[in-house]
Amino acid sequence: MTKIAMPEVIVALKGCVDPEIGLNIVDLGLIQGIDVDDSNNVKVKLTMTSPMCPVTSVILADVQLRLERLHDIGTVDIDLVWDPAWTPEMISDEARMSMNV
Hints:
Elements: H1 6-14, E1 31-36, E2 42-46, H2 56-68, E3 76-80, H3 93-99
Parallel strand pairs: 2-3
Antiparallel strand pairs: 1-2
């Protein structure tokens, strides 16, 4: 079994796009933490832009599917967190530049 590298997980997560905003969840700042253990079990902490986000289930399912496609993946655990609350300041500089904000 090959150890899954953090950049591989991040690339997979960058494929998940918030359909309302049109940005990937990494650049949008929704990822609060990623942990990959020695058995390639992946735990992702993420938040949504709002507790009332209508596409939460779509994003969570997309994260699950994309991570499960990684070679030699163990289990995938997604922890939806609300602290700290998401703010627009969490958007990456790269995304800000592409949005001209």
